[in-house]
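Q: Joint fold for the lines below.
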Amino acid sequence: MSKQRAIGAPFLIASLLSPFACNAPNSDQPSANSDAGMTSGGAGGSGAVATNGGASAGSSGGVSAAGSPSAGGAVGTAGAPAGAGGSAAGSGSGGSPVAAGNSGNGAGGSASKSGTSGAGGGAGVSGSPASAGSAGQGACTLPVVGSKGKNPLFSDQYSADPAPFVDGCTFYINCGHDEGNTGFVMKEWFLLSSSDMVTWTKKIALTLKDFKWADANAWAGQMVKKGSKYYWYVPVNEAGSGMAIGVAVADSPSGPFKDALGKALVDDAFELSNMGFKTPPDTPFTIDPSVFVDGDGQAYLHYGSFGRMVGVKLNADMISISDKMKEITPQGFFEAAFLTKREGVYYEIYAAGQNPATIDYSTSSSPLGPWKYGGRILDALPNVSGQDAATSHPGVAEFGGQWYLVYHSSNGPNGGGTYKREVAIDKLSFNADGSIQKLKPSAGLSF
Ligand code: FUB
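A: Joint structure:
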């Protein structure tokens, strides 16, 4: 099978409020508490809580989203009661719901969104969100109880290939802009953002023109933060070559972004020399980069399509690769890799099978595999009659103790189709054993 995706041709192709504290986007920087414990301020909890995976180091951590306790502390979204030091306590009355574990609310901390309160804590769902301070990153406002979002997030323009990340009190989604009819026409990337998960803003934050060496195909990228810098890895068509991965850097998620290298980070020529392939057609399809920064600061790049996924460590500068790249394809993988970590387990979430693809996941104790197939998260979204097969593209992130899946549909309410996709978001739930529950696309988030 050719690795060149026929743009515009049948994409059959592959046949294709209380406060909470959040950490860096798709990173696993060590934080004081458990990686999954952003749920409620239990009595005497200490330290801010990681958002998107993270090494647990705290003495009074939170509890997983599925309600399994970590050492000491707060409450899970599944509603396990919290109390001082993590022991269950009676329900409180009145008060404010909390989204995430945070520092030092002290005795009398508030309750989880759906759970009962800790000792002296406030009430659960019925309370109104508060906004007291938290450790490190200030106060964040929770989704308001009773508020409702809508899917797709935007209907004035078509958007695709979402990748989420949380930074401070904001949930960001970087995604592409679909402008085609019978093929992909993608020239720029949007940055969507929300602090309440219901009201979203959209702006163009990066365009093809920012990469002088590229001439088409602003496809599926991902932004991550390391240190104080934001890196946006994107696949684009390298003039005279083929699809390649570039990286832009900025001091803020909304830019301005600057091409960090002035050339591709990975292209066919790099794959030939690094991986030892003989001819360009032997190389993997160089699209859909996902980058994850682990708790020790080591970043990993995954990418690929058509059933081949490549993984490698990035150098500390985030813009170079010295290691040998390897194919580390999880079971059923088609494309659209997204790597993250939760409670010490690495999760690869991806489009599986062939288009119209499902969204499946695999897990590993290492960011470079080997992978154990985990199951299906989302069934294939229906095709639009008479059109090429629909694509799927997932990403996940935790925000305020709740995990979310972002994806796009090709059958949206606005006359969409394979090349007029629309980004949507739904809540993602984990079972106590770390497995992910299957979900159905909803008409919008509700809190
Ligand atoms: O948007 C172009 C391509 O379609 C992406 O790179 C794939 O993930 C699929 O969504």
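Q: Anything notable?
A: The pocket of beta-L-arabinofuranose is lined by residues 160-161, 176, 184, 219-220, 287-288, 335-336, 391, 393 (CB under 6 Å). Residues 268-275 form the longest helix (8 residues).
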